[in-house]
Amino acid sequence: MNYTEIIGEIRAGLTGESKHDLAYLGEQADKYKDHKLAYQIIEEISKMAYEALPEEKKKEMDRTLFYNGKRLDIIFREAKATADIHDYVTSNKLMKGIVSVIDSQFAHTSEKEHYSFRNPLEEYMYVNLFNPQIKYFKTPFNFSEMLRFNGYVLIELKKVDEAIELLKKAVKYNPVNAEAYFELAEAYKLSKNTQELFNTTRDTIKIATSSSILARCYSNLGFYCIEIEDYRSAVAFYYQSMRCEENPAIVAELNYIRQRTGRDIEKPTDVEIEAAFSKYDLKPGANQDVIGIAFALGKRALESNQVKFAKLCLGIVCDLTDDEEVKKLYAEIK
Q1: Which residues lie below 8 Å from residue 153, measured CB to CB, with a gap of 6+?
Q2: If you compute the radius of gyration of the chain from its CA atoms, what whole number of angstroms results?
Q3: Domain total of the chain
Q4: Using one digit for the tens of pLDDT, what is the confidence trace for 89-114?
Q5: Residues 220, 162 share a domain
């Protein structure tokens, strides 16, 4: 069947009874989630579901999911499209509507908080690393990513202070979203706030789930050390970054250090790298708590035949450790 025929068939199954129709539409969305036209089909099913809601529910959705009659995720898609053609002014205007809904309907209070976790792993990480004491709820859209994107747009518009405030919110809506931390770190670089750059980088290391994330963190530490003229530590951090992931840009940074100091750059020893980390009360490598959470969830997922999630979690452990047993377990996942 083509798109028109599929939608016609779905509409034919509606009865006009809200409870029945909402359950039915949920089944249809699940049925077509892997279809080649899944996005368009589910978009139309969402519209049908909205129409099937009782009036009081529609009003609630209008407050929390829409801005000026348009769903927030659609506005976000338009904002990204305008940013792709470098029209950051229009993109920022579109994002202001989204931010106004987030601030008015999903603000953190002393009684409840809202978070945008992308998968169960992130939620488990948040619970275990941050030990929340307040009841929390999941947001209907990925507000952390929306706010991170808006921060990026504001940076492009040279509105760095505004960007920092939004990026702090992006981190708050998902405290284990490394991309939000990295965008905030870039804003602190531009504002010459070296202390907050260091603090943000330190916090990112604590939630890192890949060697790529660690590499970027160590590179940011190298940048920080250049800013405070601790060139010896900068070299150590840059070399540790390249151990995690090759980065041609680091060569330019090392050349810059050579020019500033007037000395050739020598590859630091393991002892020298350890000393640089110790100087800033850090340790090389991933947070062992993160590794433990990923392993426990991966093993549990494997036992319950949740293959995709098991690969995600155990893949993280393989990337962050040299544990041969875990690598063997991961390789056996079909």
Answers
A1: 79, 83, 88, 91, 92, 95
A2: 24
A3: 3
A4: 999 999 999 999 999 999 999 999 99
A5: yes
